[in-house]
Design goal:
The longest helix is centred in the N-terminal third of the chain and has 26 residues. The chain starts with 13 loop residues before the first helix and ends with a helix. It is globular, with a radius of gyration of 26 Å. The chain is built from 23 helices and 4 strands. The strands form 2 sheets. The protein has a two-stranded parallel sheet with strand order 1-3. The chain has a two-stranded antiparallel sheet with strand order 2-4. It is mainly alpha-helical. Helix 9 runs parallel beside helix 21 and helix 20 crosses helix 22.
Length: 552
């Protein structure tokens, strides 16, 4: 229980919360700068986000040769300076009055902002899941308080402050080397000295996208349903921003009570990181968010006004929630983190720009806007974010499949060494207690194997496991797997997963070889267990062994 309730936040993690808060605050104020008296809002979002969309697509299409965004590289340094300069051009009153300068500033800052934010996403994706959730919540609180304070100052002061945010965020950005060392130390402490090997295996599983097609990469990065839900969420937010002034329901009222909403959401994030056990369904969080926006639509329809604070805070919360979800998802996919962010940001870009462009068409009819918003909320809640579609593990080390797979692999390695006449030394950490049985021999017992230290590299162990299974059969194992799959009604993909799983391969290897996310692998395994009326790896190996012997 103590492990479950340990968030793992340290004082050094404050730089992540503040650094991302700077970027979140920059994005929200830049896109919503018309509230501070700047030029027309019609082209603000497209002019800023479409160049960013081009940067995202370039990073995906050129993933094989795209420059590194990990830490303070030359590209992240250039991006921070260009963001600062572009922001000043499009927000400072003396320059923003010139439409050409304003448009150029929006394009310049928007293009390089995405590249710089990707570097932060790379850093966030290496944090533990609980720290990611807690840091995102702290970022909401920081960004909201600062945004509220900015409403009391002049537009010129806001412009200068926002232009300095990219540089402040750059100074807080952790270097890749320092972060990698911290990550290795953390893994070593958790895994008994094998942290370096773990990071190497994780990195290897994330490099397979270079040789994959663009369609496969995009499919593996983020579920289509999630992209649809993100686009709908940001479409509704953008529509509220665009139409509230048209309906005469917008005011710049500044009240301290407005901070209660973002602070409450921030506390919700921290409590979630503290209390949630092994898994969290981020689709439920987005359903809550969409329900709140549904209430906002009613507020616009029946109230006398909606404050600027509501607009700002709604955007900050949505940005942070998407950030946390994508960072957690990036830990479970075979795709590089920056590609996960790029594809997720495409969904946000589509939602925001379409809301700004098409919402004015409904400016003459509040009822039509109300109907469209409710319809989209129903679609998002009922289809895009169905329960379990974005199930994310919070404690990877406590996952049952991972634990049992590690025990089986460790036992197979010990069995191989014993059969080869190897002497098991105490220094290797291998006890003399009873084993779990052979993969194809005396059956499989339920007792776990002892933990191993100093075992051979993972890929060598997997190869030996696979070769042992093949040698134990008179018929080709591929043929037996095919017959077993047909007998139990396994789909083609389930058969592929089963073939690797039953021959001793781990989750990371299956994820890499089949180029599917970790959660997809586990979903297939659960379906396989259900169809075979088994509950774990031991049972299904015993069943496969028994039916294989009967088939001979």
């Amino acid at each position: 229980m103590n492990a479950v309730r340990n968030i793992g936040m340290k004082p050094t993690h404050a730089r992540y919360a503040v650094g991302y808060a700077c970027m979140c605050l920059w994005a929200v104020i830049l896109i919503l700068s018309p509230i501070f008296g700047s030029a027309s809002a019609f082209y603000t979002a497209p002019a800023s986000m479409l160049p960013g969309l081009a940067a995202c697509l370039a990073s995906v299409a050129l993933r094989r040769s795209f420059p590194s965004l990990e830490g303070r590289t030359w590209l992240t340094t250039l991006s921070a300076f260009c963001m600062a300069g572009g922001t000043l051009l499009c927000t400072y009153p003396a320059m923003a009055e010139n439409d050409s300068l304003r448009f150029a500033g929006l394009c310049l800052s928007g293009f390089f902002a995405v590249l710089f934010i990707m570097s932060w996403f790379e850093a966030f994706s290496r944090l533990s899941p609980r720290v990611i959730i807690a840091a995102a919540g702290c970022a909401i609180a920081v960004a909201s308080v600062v945004c509220w304070l900015l409403m009391f100052v002049t537009t010129s002061t806001v412009s200068v402050f926002v232009s300095l945010l990219p540089m402040a965020s750059y100074l807080l950005l952790p270097s890749s080397k320092a972060h990698g060392e911290a990550h290795d130390a953390k893994d070593a402490a958790k895994e008994g000295g094998t942290g370096g090997a773990s990071r190497e295996a994780e990195s290897a599983s994330k490099t397979g996208s270079a040789g994959r097609g663009l369609r496969d990469v995009m499919a593996a990065a983020i579920p289509v349903r999630t992209m649809v839900g993100l686009a709908i969420t940001f479409f509704i937010i953008s529509s509220v921003v665009a139409l509230a002034p048209s309906f005469g329901l917008f005011s710049i009222a500044v009240k301290p009570v407005a901070l209660l909403a973002p602070i409450g959401v921030a506390l919700f994030f921290v409590l979630t990181a503290y209390l949630v056990r092994h898994q969290i369904d981020s689709s439920i969080l987005f359903k809550i968010l969409l329900a709140l926006f549904g209430a906002g639509v009613f507020l616009i329809a029946y109230s006398t006004g909606i404050s600027a604070a509501f607009v700002f805070f709604a955007n900050i919360i949505a940005e942070a929630m998407m950030w946390a979800m994508l960072a957690l998802w990036a830990k479970k996919t075979p795709v590089e983190p920056r590609i996960v962010f790029a594809i997720g940001w495409v969904a946000e870009c589509v939602g925001v720009t379409s809301g700004r462009v098409f919402a004015p068409m409904l400016a003459d009819s509040l009822e039509a806007f109300f109907a469209v918003s409710i319809m989209l909320i129903i679609v998002a809640v009922g289809f895009a974010f169905s329960e379990g579609s974005v199930m994310l593990d919070v404690d990877f080390q406590q996952d049952e499949l991972d634990e049992r797979g590690a025990r089986d692999k460790a036992f197979a390695e010990r069995t191989d060494l014993e059969n080869a006449g190897a002497v098991v030394a105490e220094a290797d950490g291998m006890g003399d207690g009873p084993g779990q049985g052979e993969l194809f021999g005396k059956g499989v017992e339920a007792s776990p194997a002892p933990a191993l230290q100093g075992v051979a590299p993972q890929r060598e162990a997997e190869a030996r496991n696979s070769s042992d299974v093949r040698a134990a059969q008179a018929r080709p194992v591929e043929e037996l797997i095919e017959e077993f799959s047909q007998a139990h009604g396994l789909s083609r993909r389930e058969k592929d997963v089963f073939a690797l799983w039953v021959t001793g391969h781990g989750l990371k290897r299956i994820e890499s070889d089949l180029f599917i996310s970790e959660s997809t692998v586990k979903t297939h395994l659960r379906n396989i267990y259900r169809k075979c009326d088994t509950h774990n790896r031991d049972e299904i190996i015993a069943l496969f062994e028994r039916e294989s012997r009967q088939a001979e």
